[in-house]
Amino acid sequence: MCLIPSFCVSSWNIPRILTTIWNSYILLKTKQGFGMTEVQRVNPNRLVIKQGDKLSFAQYNLTLNEVKFLAFVMAQIDTNDTEFKEYGIKVKDFETLINAPLDYTRLSKFAKVFQGKVITLKNDNEKSFTTFNWWHHLRYDNGVFYAQLHDYMKPLLLTFSSHFGKSSLLYISQMKSLYAPRFYYMLRSFKAQYQNSFEIDLEELYTKLELKKSLRQYNQFKTFVLTPALEEINRITDLNVEYFEADKERKKILKLRFEFTKKEKDLLDFIN
């Protein structure tokens, strides 16, 4: 099935979640109350994720299921929105999104754990920081799981004070590597600034990804984080990326340089 008639290419592997979401409904609710205001069909623009640079390079640690759910919610934000709405996803569609069964107990645990996680933003000279929760609330009612983002997320998703990167839920939903979405968001952020490369200190990258100690050994990082993530980005998304060990000191890697190019067929050109 081709979800976008103007872009039917057999080599694109569109996952079942997108067929499900395409034909399902998203429940929109106002911030002021919990009365339903309207039911809106998902459209192609709602598959595009826009996020500010600060979010792309923020410090946080989420599971892959949490990353995909967050991406789904971010994709529903309209360009003209000035406030966060409450979005509801049918549990059966949520199950398809993460490819796992969800009962009341699992949903409750998911909500409690995710509600307790934080994101940290640091300023350029790293002499100050802000840390906050992702969600204003998460809740479940009658077969639908609801989410509303925290107001502190507004500058990152609604009122951009700097450049923003554009990604696609079509790509994020297919990823199996935990860190592929994080690197993809970073790459798309620089692409939005018409750049095709960037460098980052390795220790800074470890911190932003909140890697456990064992993965902060470069060989372990390369084997279990970097290589799987970039291979998946190259296979699934609109970008081809490679990395270089940009700075060394006594055989210790200090920086990585990422260089990337846009593939000839860019799905985001067709759904923006």
Description:
The chain has 272 residues and is α+β, with helices and mostly antiparallel strands. The protein has one domain (16-271): Winged helix-like DNA-binding domain superfamily/Winged helix DNA-binding domain (Arc Repressor Mutant, subunit A), CATH 1.10.10. The strands form four sheets. The protein has a five-stranded antiparallel β-sheet with strand order 2-1-4-8-7. The two termini are 20 Å apart. Helix content is 35%, strand content 28%. The longest helix is centred in the last third of the chain and has 19 residues, at 218-236.
Q: Find the CATH superfamily.
A: Winged helix-like DNA-binding domain superfamily/Winged helix DNA-binding domain
Q: How many separate helices?
A: 11
What structural category characterises the helix and strand content?
A: alpha+beta
Widest sheet, order of strands: 2-1-4-8-7
The third-level CATH topology is Arc Repressor Mutant, subunit A
